Amino acid sequence: MSLNLSVNINKLATLRNARGGNNPDVVQMAKLCEQFGAQGITVHPRPDERHIRYADVVELAQQVTTEFNIEGYPSEDFLLLIEKVKPHQVTLVPDPPEAITSNAGWDTITHENTLKTIIQRIKKTGARVSIFLDPNPNLIPSAQRTGTDRIELYTEAYAKAFESSPGPKETANHKKKPESAETDRKSTRLNSSHITISYAVFCLKK
């Protein structure tokens, strides 16, 4: 299995905003991540701009030389930003504006038609689309019907359980999903999020 690492630099922006000024410089930090071997840079601009700001996204789009992935809830402002900067990948998450961090995936059964319309709009920019999904194999068929290119696994339950050895439920859910995606449509690929260092080492060993 080949793994590519995209580094989320949101927390660097949080630190910068708390300190005031431009230290750390998120553009420079993104460049350093690339120099150290990261295959991509990820940002998640939120409406309150408490970490990555929309202006950061515009500047990063001009400087990032690896894959640029923008996560976010598909509000009209977010979609306009995507149409402006045209990133390599857009990851859609169902976060409400007040969410501290992403803590659930899309209910693709309920929101299938809405997501289909949004994804069609995003694909006109040339971007690849990924949608944030809980590790529930039952959601895969409707996820694939939205036209998404990838599904991103929400791995928090697995990551939390990893230190004490993940139980049958966490392991089974994450094993079933890739198999289902591979069976249903060869072109659908998998991303994972909220990876701990221990889980990353485990993946590399596999």
Task: Summarize this structure briefly.
The protein is α/β, with parallel strands linked by helices and 206 residues long.
Describe the structure.
This protein is α/β, with parallel strands linked by helices and 206 residues long. The N and C termini lie close together (8 Å).
How many beta-strand segments?
Answer: 7
* General form: globular
Percent of sequence in beta strands: 15-25%
Give the % helix. 40-55%
Order of strands, widest sheet: 1-2-3-4-5-6-7
Order of helices and strands: EHHEHEHEHEHEHHEH
Structural class label = alpha/beta
Intertermini distance: 8 Å
Largest sheet, strands/sense/barrel: 7 strands, parallel
By DSSP (H or I, 4+ residues per run), the number of helices equals 9
Question: Mean pLDDT, nearest integer?
Answer: 83
Defining key terms:
single chain, 206 residues, alpha/beta, seven-stranded parallel β-sheet, 7 strands, 44% helix, disordered C terminus
Secondary structure layout plus pairing:
Layout lengths: L5 E3 L1 H10 L6 H10 L4 E4 L10 H10 L3 E6 L3 H10 L3 E4 L19 H12 L4 E6 L6 H6 L4 E5 L1 H7 L5 H17 L4 E5 L3 H9 L1
Parallel strand pairs: 1-2, 2-3, 3-4, 4-5, 5-6, 6-7
Helix pairs in contact: 2-3
